[in-house]
Design goal:
The complex is a heterodimer of chains A (580) and B (120). Chain A has 13 helices and 21 strands. Chain A has 580 residues and is α/β, with parallel strands linked by helices. In chain A, the strands form 6 sheets. In chain A, strands 6-3-2-10-17 form a 5-stranded parallel beta sheet, covered by helices on one side. Chain A is globular and about 70 Å long. Chain B is built from 1 helix and 7 strands; from the N terminus they run E-E-H-E-E-E-E-E. In chain B, the strands form 2 sheets. Chain B has a 5-stranded mixed beta sheet with strand order 2-1-5-3-4, with helices on one face. In chain B, strands 6-7 form a two-stranded antiparallel sheet. The termini of chain B are far apart. Classes of the chains: A alpha/beta (580), B mainly beta (120). At the A-B interface, strand 6, helix 8 and strand 15 of A face helix 1 and strand 7 of B.
Chain lengths: 580, 120
């Protein structure tokens, strides 16, 4: 099978907010980037789903607010797990990120008559109002202007191109291996610098709020290349996600608005169970507290057949219900007059991820990362409104750092009389592409009727999502986590070798594309489970039913590496977080 | 308890599968032919759920790419059903058991796989 090769200075994997911002920053430094995305940039990534807010400290901030206060809010919410150095960078540069978006053409809703001064909304957990917004679709607007700028800068975007692994030769990064879904072509993108901007991995759970692309690709790619992940045990769940009917599954029921107005939670017997858990008034419960109590009630047998509970809006004025959402729910088959809806906590955001420093650099020289796929900012809990701030601030930094690295490499190579570009050795390229070749060979053999025991990508997806939902959800126990690790390691060591598509024709083969996602889903799920097993305490979004208390000895970050198929786990102590 | 998905007026009859005729083609300018599929009914199933079921459960040769916001605002899932353009992620499969004729509403390369003209 032919392998095509292309050369760039920086390869960016992912076309959401972080990837597009990184591409612009790299191009502004005078290097040649390329963006690889497994979907289409105008319709891909989690950024698009960010409805309301992009938090920052602007020059027009409320009296008393400052980057220091913003950083303190994030650190408090992160419960001692966030990396204070990264948090400081985020807080200090968030204002700059908003100004950049404004220069590109985002017109944030104004505070008053001056259209250049955005209104600042207040969000829970923030000491001051900091959220700039554009109607109810700030993420969509941000992607629109970033993409326009990327096109104007003539930065190539390779759509439907699934990055499979990094090409690393003698410890040196020299590019990305990829599979082009429309043609079935294997590709090597040679470059001295790569940026992972692949978003999160919530699709590894049966019930989640994420776009279908969120299969943890960056975590899998980084792990297999020997890079370090951190804080993977901290997965944020949104407490009230529809479990039924089919078309509504995964949609969020806005508990943040309706619970303070009086909505209550009921178990399958119709009992209002909240007060049994001693978690304070429901009206004041944050997302993580609500998720914990709901998961405990489900685990105690209060859940419905589908694993849900009921949220009831009985007694609320119907005019209080958000009308935009009511229309969407009605369209997808939710009875508009129903007083109860069946909901459960659904995976929403990965706080942990690829370990980076203030330059967005990983420990593998030349590899950078930005956005949800990284760890270190949000710690045990993400403060609302900070996902876009993170992807814009660190997207820009990753683009600049990767460009500088590429320029340094070119200078070094030039001095050594070389061409200035790295060339991946044919043997290395072949080794990196081996899993994809094997998948294709098996798929062809199956079509020819010459293969034995196989697993379809659909079966693999189901296996991962089911064990993650059941054993590594919002509450965990040692027994459950060990079960999940065994299932995931069996999938990684044996299942993958049986993974086979149903159609032998390669162009636009959905099974091949889903099989490639599955490799990352398995590695992502495994990293969450091994970290969750190691952290024998409960803190923020990580709740161990067999270790329900917070343990100060665990006020540290937990790094995961993959070493010869085994988990290499290491604690990284954090500095004391002072309040006030 | 009258929960959202269980309202009897909206309950689908699982005994009656959804019959659909789905547009197929091998390449962008290929002439379109219609293939008939019989899809099991599920409560509250959308047109997008139906297309995904065909791709994942019935026919490995059916080219289908799903990247929608699932909230009806990104527009990526627009298709034509019985001559009418609809957002497939927020349009329910009708309860009446008539045949659905489903075609892409945007430029596609193969079956329902979207075209990407801007690639180098």
């Amino acid at each position: 099978m032919e392998v095509s090769r292309e050369q760039y200075d920086v390869v960016i994997i992912g076309s959401g907010g972080a990837g597009l911002r990184a591409a612009l920053a790299a191009a502004e430094r005078g290097v040649r980037p390329v963006i690889l995305t497994k979907g289409q940039p105008q319709w891909s990534g989690g950024t698009l789903s960010a409805h309301y807010s992009f938090c920052a400290v602007l020059p027009t901030a409320a009296f008393g607010d400052s980057p220091e206060v913003f950083a303190r809010d994030i650190l408090r919410s992160g419960e001692g797990i966030s990396d204070p150095k990264l948090v400081r960078v985020l807080a200090e540069r968030s204002g700059e990120a908003v100004a950049y978006a404004q220069r590109l053409g985002v017109k944030f809703d104004p505070a008053g008559d001056d259209p250049g001064v955005p209104h600042l909304g207040w969000l829970a957990g923030h000491t001051y109002p900091r959220a700039v917004h554009v109607g109810n679709a700030v993420g969509r607007e941000l992607i629109r202007v970033l993409l326009k700028a990327v096109r104007k800068a003539r930065i190539p975007i390779h759509a439907f191109t699934s990055a499979t692994d990094l090409v690393v030769e003698d410890g040196e990064l020299c590019g990305v291996a990829a599979y082009h879904i429309p043609s079935g072509e294997l590709r090597i993108y040679e470059a001295p610098a790569v940026i992972l901007a692949t978003g999160g991995g919530s699709q590894i759970y049966e019930l989640n709020t994420n776009p279908v692309e969120a299969t943890g690709d960056g975590y899998g790619i980084a792990l297999r290349a020997g890079a370090e992940l951190m804080d993977m045990e901290f997965v944020q769940f949104y407490p009230t996600v529809f479990v039924t009917p089919a078309g509504a599954r995964g949609l969020m029921f806005n508990s943040g608005i309706l619970v303070p107005k009086g909505a209550r939670l009921l178990n399958r017997f119709g009992e209002d169970f909240w007060d049994r858990y001693g978690a304070g008034p429901l009206k004041d419960a944050t997302r993580d507290v609500m998720t914990r109590v709901m998961s405990q009630e489900i685990a105690a047998g209060g859940g419905t057949e589908r694993g849900g509970l009921y949220i009831t809006v009985r007694g609320l004025d119907p005019r209080e219900l958000p009308q935009l959402q009511q229309k969407l729910l009605e369209d997808v088959g939710v009875d508009p007059n129903a007083q109860e809806h069946e909901v459960a906590p659904g995976a929403h955001y990965f706080m942990g991820g690829i370990r980076i420093d203030e330059e967005a650099a990983t420990k593998l020289p030349g590899l950078y990362a930005a956005g949800e796929c990284t760890g270190g900012i949000h710690g045990a809990n993400r403060l609302a409104g900070n996902a876009l701030s993170e992807n814009q601030v660190f997207g820009a930094i990753a683009g600049q750092s990767a460009a500088q690295h590429a320029l340094r490499q070119a200078r070094r190579a030039g001095q050594a009389g070389q061409t200035g570009r790295l060339r991946a050795d044919a043997k290395t390229a072949a080794r990196v592409l081996e899993p994809v070749r094997e998948l294709i060979s098996r798929t062809r053999a199956r079509a020819a009727g010459t293969t034995g025991d196989v697993m379809s990508p659909g079966e693999g997806w189901q296996a991962v999502r089911s064990v993650m939902q059941r054993c590594v959800g919002a509450t965990r126990t040692e027994e459950q986590l060990k079960e999940a690790i065994a299932v995931l390691e069996d999938l990684r060591d044996n299942g993958i070798r049986r993974l086979t598509g149903r159609d032998s024709a390669l162009p636009y083969n959905r099974d091949i594309s889903r099989a490639l996602d599955l490799r990352n889903m398995i590695d992502t799920g495994w990293s969450v489970a091994v970290a969750a097993l190691e952290r024998r305490e409960s803190r923020g979004a990580h709740v161990r039913l067999d270790a329900p208390e917070r343990d100060e000895a665990w006020t540290c970050s937990l790094a995961v590496r993959l070493s010869n198929g085994q988990a290499d786990l290491r604690k990284n102590p954090r500095g004391e977080v002072k309040d006030g | 308890m009258s929960a959202s998905g269980n309202a009897s007026a909206r309950k689908a009859n699982p005994a009656k599968p959804v019959m659909c005729e789905v547009a197929r083609k091998l390449f962008a300018d290929d002439s379109v032919r219609f293939q008939t599929y019989e899809v099991p009914r599920q409560d509250g199933m959308t047109i997008q759920d139906l297309l995904r079921y065909i791709a994942d459960e019935l026919d490995g040769t059916f080219a289908f790419f799903e990247h929608s916001c699932k909230r009806g605002f990104c527009g990526s899932c627009l298709v034509t059903v019985n001559g009418r353009k609809v957002l497939s992620c927020r349009t329910l499969v009708p309860l009446e058991p008539h045949v659905l004729r489903i075609e892409p509403a945007m430029k596609t390369e193969r079956d329902f796989w979207p075209a990407w003209p801007e690639e180098d």
